[in-house]
Design goal:
The chain is α/β, with parallel strands linked by helices. Helix content is about 55%, strand content about 5%. Helix 6 runs antiparallel to helix 10. The structure holds zinc ion. Zinc ion binds next to helix 16.
């Protein structure tokens, strides 16, 4: 499943030099253990916004008012303080616009987030501020301060601070418009839940018992199956009736269509203009700056090479799936998208003896959650303490404080279950960036796992959910353990953005290890640990369909890259989608669907969706060391933590990998993996 994490990259905009004279505003004291704000009313958010932007402005004004020599103390530190104050409303506002159960709070959080976004883009185009910071270039002794300054000045330039006033004004307008459109895209997506209606329980033939139990006919005798993940994916995996799988697929492929077609088109056009104003050939070229890849050409090369290696494997996968379909329907000559998961499940259970329904009986949700938290804490030598009755935005949210010995390290929130008005994705988000001596890091893990309170019976997770949970915990640990830096711009997951899926993807491997799984995966009735043979079969089966998976990822990477790398005025979203499907997707396009209107990554990751495959390529390399020493080997985990997680953005990704592996990263292992060797 595709996962999202929020970009900490600020989309900057333009600003006029401050017209008002600096004013003195009382700054609230920063205390070390401050926790992020939890809001219950729209008024509280508005008050926080006003106070935080005021404090942030006060720090900037103090910095600008300096008349003598510029130093780290009188310039870079106040700038850092301004960012800390700003982020204290920016992140919580974004998260609450996605998560808060109260509609009015969500809407106000959304408006405040836009306001904060406007503020930060203004800051990044403040020419006076840029000039003040630039004076320090080449004059700082501290290496982290030097890196923070360099990255900051680069981001200012990427925001157009060095362009003329007309250009800066236009960039500011574009920023605000794009932010609004992206939010509109997400809102349309969340609002458009579609259904198919089944006539009877018999229509659910093939579905797991607990799914059937929780989908009983309504007063009109109909059973509704929605396009939300928790219903869509199980239905695609198990429902025997092809016509019904097809019907649900068709609904899913039209979510947020046509509303988002125009929204997406405008977003792409405005970004194209934005990149052009900054002197770049396209948004894709602009977005490649500051990534490990560095240039869009490197991304194309990487994806083309990957496709070349994976395509023959994907073709074999499709052949075997079609052959299996023909056992059910001898006249079948095409394997459709709605067949893929269904016949994969069949082959897995028949040929590899991996029965996903048997498998899920070892993953009752509460014990799996505790098990995963236990594994992650143990791996990194930490302790997660559940805070009883902690203040949060919903009663189902759990708050954990993280300790190393008796030293507090940070906290995380688990918001695991779907509810009305909540984002339907799985992701991790920041609540508060860690700053040494000032505040501890806090992150949120956002899930849409099956809710244990929805049934009197034990609720079981899919095996894939276990990987997803570990993936998101990888992000959370990166944010927390990378969150001990003085400079906010280097703290947390502030690494190059195409490296950001490395810690998350790596942790997914822990879901394949027999020793790891047997620590917590017990049969929900008998309490027996998961049999080693079952895991062995599961791992053997992992090679199956890998080619198709890689091609699917290559396809999304290519189509989004292509959307943002052509003349936006002539862009035909559907035609490009179809063209890329022909080249890279093992399944045929289905007439009447518009999947690009319902994929959030087309507006958030944009042309950098390749990040997932790129990170995967590095993970295959990094994992070799864990494979050698054992997945729960403390020394290896500690070395990994020191080399890869703790630096945050203070060390270039390439160097971090070298520090861990003792050599430069290489894609050789990935190429072998993709080619099925
Ligand atoms: Zn991720």
């Amino acid at each position: 499943m595709v996962l999202v994490i929020l970009s900490t990259t600020v989309l900057a905009a333009c600003n006029k030099p401050d017209e008002k004279p600096p004013t003195e505003v009382a700054e609230p004291p920063l205390t070390y253990l401050d926790s992020p704000p939890i809001w219950n009313t729209p008024q509280e958010i508005e008050a926080t916004l006003a106070a935080q932007l005021n404090s942030s402005n006060a720090s900037i004004n103090k910095l600008l008012a300096v008349t003598g020599d510029r130093t780290l103390e009188n310039t870079l530190i106040p700038y850092n303080d301004a960012l800390i104050e700003f982020e204290r409303v920016y992140y919580p506002a974004y998260e609450m616009s996605q998560l808060h159960p109260d509609t009015a709070v969500r809407e106000t959080a959304d408006a405040c987030y836009q306001e904060a976004q406007k503020f930060i883009s203004g800051l990044y185009r403040n020419t006076g501020l840029y000039a003040a910071l630039a004076v320090l270039e080449g004059r700082l002794d501290d290496p982290e301060a030097t890196r923070f300054l360099e990255l900051t000045l680069r981001d200012f330039r990427l925001s157009g601070v060095d362009k003329d006033e007309t250009t800066r004004d236009r960039l500011q307008v574009l920023d605000e418009r794009i932010t609004g459109l992206v939010q509109e895209f997400d809102r349309n997506l969340a609002a458009d839940v579609r259904y198919i209606e089944l006539e009877s329980v018999e229509d659910m033939a093939g579905m797991p018992e607990d799914f059937i139990a929780s989908h009983q006919p309504d007063e009109n005798g109909k059973i509704r199956i929605s396009t939300q993940f928790t219903e869509y994916y199980p239905f695609m995996d198990y429902a025997e009736r092809e016509d019904l799988r097809r019907a649900l697929y068709m609904e899913h492929g039209q979510v947020a269509y046509p509303a988002n077609e125009a929204v997406l088109k405008e977003i792409i056009e405005l970004r194209d203009e934005y990149a052009a104003l900054l002197g770049y050939e396209s948004w894709a070229a602009y977005q490649a700056v500051g990534k490990m890849a560095g240039k869009k050409e490197v991304i194309y090369d990487f994806l083309e090479r990957t496709a070349e290696l994976a395509l023959p494997q994907a073709e074999l996968d499709i052949q075997s799936l079609l052959a299996r379909k023909q056992q059910d329907d001898p006249a079948a000559d095409t394997l459709w998208s709605w067949d893929g998961s269904y016949y994969s499940s069949k082959i897995l259970s028949e040929e590899y003896a991996v029965d996903s329904q048997e498998l899920r009986q070892y993953f009752e949700i509460e014990s799996t959650k505790d098990g995963i938290l236990g594994i992650v804490a143990d791996l990194f030598g930490l302790e997660f303490r559940l805070v009883p009755n902690a203040d949060a935005w919903h009663s189902s949210v759990e708050v954990y404080e993280i300790f190393e010995g008796e030293k507090p390290v940070g906290r995380f929130y688990l918001d695991l279950y779907p509810r009305e008005g909540k984002t339907t994705w799985f992701s991790s988000g920041p609540m508060q960036t860690g700053v040494t001596g000032v505040q501890l890091p806090a992150a949120i893990l956002i899930g849409n796992f099956p809710d244990p309170s929805s049934s009197d019976e034990p609720v079981l997770m899919e095996y894939g959910d276990v990987s997803t949970f570990l993936h998101e915990m990888g992000h959370v640990m990166h944010f927390i353990l990378g969150g001990n830096h003085q400079w906010v711009g280097l703290s947390g997951w502030a690494c190059e953005w195409d490296f950001v899926e490395v810690p998350s993807t790596l942790l997914e491997y822990w879901a394949s290890d027999v020793d790891v799984l047997q620590r917590f995966a017990k049969h929900y009735q008998s309490g027996e640990p998961i049999p080693a043979e079952l895991i062995a079969k599961l791992n053997k089966a992992k090679g199956f369909n890998l080619g198709s998976w890689v091609m699917g990822q290559t396809f999304y990477s290519m189509v989004f890259l292509s959307y943002y790398d052509q003349d936006a005025k002539d862009l035909d979203l559907l035609a490009t989608w179809q063209e890329m499907m022909l080249k890279y997707n093992p399944y045929p396009y289905v007439s009447g669907t518009h999947p690009y209107t319902s994929i959030g990554h087309v507006v958030d990751y944009t042309s950098t969706y390749y990040t997932y495959l790129w990170s995967q390529a590095i993970v295959v390399d990094i994992f070799s060391k864990f494979k050698e020493n054992g997945l729960m080997d403390r020394a290896t985990a500690l070395a990994y933590r020191r080399a890869i997680l703790e630096p945050g953005g203070a060390v270039a990704a390439k160097e971090m990998v070298r520090n861990f592996l003792g050599r430069d990263y290489s894609f050789d292992a990935f190429n072998q993996w993709v080619a099925g060797k």
